[in-house]
Specification:
The protein is built from 2 helices and 5 strands, in the order βαββββα. The protein has 83 residues and is α+β, with helices and mostly antiparallel strands.
Length: 83
Amino acid sequence: MAIITNVHKEQTFNPIASISCKLFGHKYRITKRYESNLKEFECAHCKKQFTLDGYGHYTPLTPKLKKVNEVYESFYTKKLSIR
């Protein structure tokens, strides 16, 4: 069961925020937290979405990675329900 903390908003391009992120880095905030300890993040400035890869690095959230997170979460919750 996933807890959604923030509703996805339509992304708008803001060149000033983009420059800010390039100079100072992204300001990550959690948008979705799964029971399997996976997390999805969004930059507070440029609104780009990220997730953690297998090594713990932030990677851009693609539709493929979003699906992988959901499949992993369903596998994890089914495994817990069997025990």
